[in-house]
Amino acid sequence: MRAHLLLGFALAALPALPAVAAEGMWLPSQAPLLAERLKADGLEIPAAALADLGAAPMNAIASLGGCSASFVSPEGLVATNHHCVYGSIQYNSSPERDLLTNGFLARTRAEELPAAPGARILVIEELRDVTAAVLSGVTVKVTGKNRTDLIDRNRKNLISACEAEAGRRCDVRAYFGGGTWFLQKMLEIRDVRLVHAPAGSVGNYGGEVDNWQWPRHTGDYSFYRAYVAPDGSPAGHDAANVPYRPRAHLKIATSDLKEGDFVMIAGFPGVTERYRTAGETRAYYSDIYPLQQRLLAEHSDLITREAKTDAERIATASLQKRSDNFKKKILGQMEMAAATNLLATKEADDRKLADWAARPANRRTHARAIADYDAAVAGELAASRARIVNQTLDRAQLLRAARDLFRWANERALPDEKRAPGYQDRDRQALIDRLSLIDRQYVARIDGLMLEQALREVGKLPEGQRNLALEKAIAERGLDRLYAGTRLADRAERLAWLDRPVEAFAASDDPFIQVAVAAYAADMMGEERAREREGRLHAARVAYMEAVKTHAASEGRLLYPDANGSLRFTWGKVAGRAIEDGKAWTAFTTTRGLLEKEKGEEPFNAPPALLEKVRAGDWGRWASPALGTLPVNFLSTTDITNGNSGSAVLNARGELVGLAFDGTIEGMLSDWKVDDATNRTIAVDARYMLWVMEKMDGAGHLLEEMGVGPEKEAAAR
């Protein structure tokens, strides 16, 4: 039976909008309501196909739990970004076998490598409105922690029932501030293997210099393969497992993609903030974002300064890449917020909403809801700042492991349904994976410096926002003793603690375990306060978002929910843009631009063999007839954010034409406010990906598997 997304909120007829839609991370079930607009913009398949989660293209879209991906063969081959599999490349690298630099290709199934611990491929099966069940018993009189606890209990009951079916991973997510809830049911594929990654000088060409910039010349693609047990059920890594056969996979486009063509993106965008108030905007851009950006920059700088050997650089590469990516994004957001006066725009939006709410019919409901929300948000913003600083302690991997393990021991003493989310039986494997990953990312000296850096930052907070017991326990032992005396650096020892009782922790002489025990009571008190705030904020946000939706409906506008990690689609056109008088960005970059950037040193150091073929014009069958050369990357007006990395870019027939991997600095504000003139998505053109695979890496067997081998290509022409 094919699964469909059922919305629990009214979807009115859509007003006429501009011909090329850009803003909107739309839910699949909204596609039929958008049918006329989609067709007018160039979609050639029925719009209803985008609402069908049991068939292509939507059933071919997968989540990697932080990135997006898509099935591109009947044998479980999955395409995504190079930076989305970077952790698995790093995990399998060593100074003697540096896959980060040299890339990797499995020429046979037997050569495919296990992905990093925790790697998952999640295939959506169902999205179902469960609002009534989640909010059962939740009334206006239920507030604070009681409200949070009741919603958590209802969510856990739904998740438990959903996961009674073996091999499924379920979640219940909030939409529109928690006034609407959907259960998301996904097939959880746990045997994930690395199949192909290009050389780092292809997959990360331009590095941090080009990150969030245009023009780009980055081959940001890689491939996983999904494996299951012989009976087709999800299973852990095993030599007896077989490739997963997806219900649907994407066809690779063979027609020319040109400027002005219709494209759409399907994936799992993470978080947007488009319904934040002016007060929230002011707090984020004047305080929270500058703090986050500085902390990320200092973390990255520490790794650059201290990772002195090849082994240390490989171990810390994934940690640093995450920091670098987000620090640059936040910096770009702050710069563009100032340049475009985002706050003034938000204030104007708030005044418009307030004027509508002040009407006699709305005063007692919506006007009050806006005032209550503003009051609730004020306390949460202060807590958010302290939480960001305290979370820097988690960069110390053994300290985080010890705290997680002691919390796990305490939760294990409770019935499973009474445990906190994240510490139920369903979460055990995720904790094992996280504890196992430390093996390939831990350098004791650098870890200690990260902890020292975090403690200095935490020490700047008021005492009421700190875990003083944790700080005291660390000070009493000293960092040297913490690292010299612990046995948690050994994987077997870390995992053994998963089955030890609370009493064993209390009696331990391991200094990190002792710190975790000392910190626990204050950790729990902090969590209780957070749950109290969360409950108050939920009640206020639901009422506020109801006002926002009602106001929009009064103007004939349909709202899509903020991104929350669930499946969405967006569409637009392949398009460059004007940047200033007399200058413009082209819609495509080509290998000509790559040659112009090339310096022979990082980050502009493409492989010599690639440069040779580029200079020779050896495009084979992959050149664009319209461009007369080989395209590398292209821009589109589609609407994406973090989490969309690796998303399939599809043409009007639902065929794969590229993989989304970035936005531009000028469009950074799209998480908060979309400007169609500046918002652009950067994608790697599938033709560049296929050219590198065929001409450079000898991956013809993968092209055959994807249906674009030489013989099939000739037949298609």
Overview of the structural elements:
It is built from 23 helices and 20 strands. It is an alpha+beta fold and 717 residues long. The protein folds into 4 domains: 200 residues, no CATH class; 72 residues; 204 residues, no CATH class; 145 residues, Thrombin, subunit H (Beta Barrel), CATH 2.40.10. The strands form 3 sheets. Strands 1, 2, 3, 4, 5, 6, 7, 8, 9, 10 and 11 form an 11-stranded antiparallel β-sheet that branches. A hairpin with a 2-residue loop joins strand 14 and strand 15.
Give the total of domains. Answer: 4
Distance between the termini: 36 Å
Average of per-residue pLDDT values: 94
* Helix proportion range: 40-55%
Indicate the structural class.
Answer: alpha+beta
What count of helical segments does DSSP give?
Answer: 23
Strand content: 5-15%
Q: Which regions have little confidence, pLDDT < 50, spanning 5+ residues?
A: 1-20
Dominant shape: globular
Largest sheet: 11 strands, antiparallel
Counted beta strands: 20
Any key phrases for this structure?
single chain, about 725 residues, alpha+beta, 4 domains, 11-stranded antiparallel β-sheet, 7-stranded antiparallel β-sheet, 23 helices, 20 strands, globular, disordered N terminus
